[in-house]
Amino acid sequence: MSKLPGWLGRLGAELTELGERLEERRAAAEAEADRDADAEPPVAAAAAADHPAATADHVPPPPAYAPSVAARPDPVAAIPWGMRVAAEAGWRLLVLAGTLWVLMRVISAVQLVVLAFVAALLVTAMLQPTVARLRRYGLPRGLATAVTAILGFVIMGLVGWFVVWQVMDNLDTLSDKVRDGIDELKRWLLDSPFHVTEQQINDVAKNLSDTIGTNTEEITSAGLQGVTVMVEVLTGILLAMFSTLFLLYDGKRIWHWVLKLVPAQARPGVAGAGPRAWRTLTAYVRGTVLVAMIDAIFIGLGIWFLDVPMAVPLAVFIFLFAFIPLVGAVVSGALAVVVALVTEGVFTALMVLVVVLAVQQIEGHVLQPFILGRAVRVHPLAVVLSVAAGGMVAGIGGAVVAVPLVAVTNTVVGYLRAFGQEAALRHAPQPRGATAIGSAPTSTPSPAPAPPPAGEGDGEEKPPAQ
C-alpha cells in the first residue's frame, strides 16, 4: 500500500508528458498544412472544391496569374445625375397630370353644378358689399341678405326682359331692313368688278334653300336639343340663385368648414390666401361690371346716333359679352358692325367699327389698368389661352370663368410662395456676429386672420390687395 501513491504520481507525469508531445505534433502538422496550401496547384484546388468541408476554415486567395475582374457598379450610380433628376420630375409630373385629368373628368360629369356654383360665387362677389353696407345700417343678416338678393335678381330679370322686349319689338323692322340690305348687297355684287352674275346669285340662294329643306330632321333635332339646353339653363339658374343666397347669408361658416378640411400644417397658409383670393375675385367682378357698363353706354350711344336699329339690345349684348375678355369685345363689336352693314349700308358700318375700336382702345389702355388695378392684372397671352381652354372645356360658361380663375390662382400662388419663404426664414438658424446685419430677412406678407370669403356683413369691406 505504501508504493501506491508513488506509482500514481509516475503515471500522472507520464500522461502529462504524452499530452504535451501530442500538442507539439498537432501544431507542427497545422504549420505544414498551411505551407502546402500556399503552394497548392489548380488541380489540388479543384480537388479541394469537391470537399468543401476540408476548406471551410480557410479560403485560399486566387493565384497571381488569374485575370482581374472589375466589380460591377451600383445601377443607380451608373445613371447620369441629370437623367435621374429628369426621371424624378417626370413621374411626379405624370402623377399631377393624372390627377388633373381625373379632376377634369369629374368636373365634366357635374359641369352644370360646377358652373352654377361658380356663377353664384361671381354674383356673390358683386352683391356681398351691399349686404355688408346694410349690416352697418343696422339690418339683421337675414333681412339684409334677402333685400340684396331680391333686388339683385329683380334687376337681372328686368335686364333680360328688356333685351327680349326690344328684340321682339324691333324684329319686324330689322327683318325689313335686312331684306333691303340683302337686295342692296345683291345690286352691289352685280355692279362690282368681280363679274358676279344674277344667275350665280340665284343659284346660291337656291342651294341654300335646298340645304335647309333637305336638313329638316337635323334642324328639328337641333330644336329639340335647344329645348334641352333651355331646361339645363333654367336648372343652372335656380342652383345659382340658391347658392347665392346661402353664400351671402352663411359664407363665414362655410369658409370655416372648408378650412377644417385642410391639413393642420397647411391651414395657416390657406387661411391667409383665402381672403386675398376673395378680394381679388370681388375686385375683378366689380371692375369688369363697371368697364362693361362704360363700354355698353358709349358704344350704344354711338350706335344710336348713327341710327342703327336695336341700339339698346346691342348695347346690352355688348355689356354681357364684356365678361369674356378680348374675345367677347370682338364678338359683340362684330355683331354691331354686321347689323349696321345689313341695315344702313357700308358707310354706317365703317362708322360703327370706328366707334367700337375707339371705345375698346380706351378700355384696354385706360379703364382696365385704372379700375382693375394690379391685383387682377393678367397678361394678354394668359387671357387668350385661358379663355380658349375654358371655352373648349365648358363652352361659354368656361370662357366666362376662366380669367377670374386665373387671376385668383395667381394671387393664391403668390401669397403661398411668400408665406413659405417667411416660414423658412422663421425656422432658419439666426446668424451671429457681423453677418447678422447683412443677412437679416426682409419683411414678407404674414398670414392674416381668416375673414369669410362670402357673406360676411360685419365690418367694413377691405380694399383689394395691391
UniProtKB/TrEMBL annotation:
What are the UniProt keywords, alphabetically?
Cell membrane, Membrane, Transmembrane, Transmembrane helix, Transport
The way this protein sits in the membrane is described as: Multi-pass membrane protein
Main location (coarse class): membrane
> Where on the tree of life does the source sit, at the highest rank?
Bacteria
Q: Where are the transmembrane segments?
A: 143-164, 227-249, 283-305, 311-331, 338-362, 382-408
Please name the InterPro entries in this protein's record.
AI-2E-like
Q: Where in the cell is it found?
A: Cell membrane
Region (Disordered) residue spans:
22-65, 427-466
Q: Where is the composition biased (Low complexity)?
A: 40-58, 433-443
Composition-biased stretches, type Pro residues, lie in 444-454
Q: Where is the composition biased (Basic and acidic residues)?
A: 22-38
Q: Which family does it belong to?
A: Belongs to the autoinducer-2 exporter (AI-2E) (TC 2.A.86) family.
Which named protein is this?
AI-2E family transporter
Q: Which organism is it from?
A: Streptomyces sp. 900116325
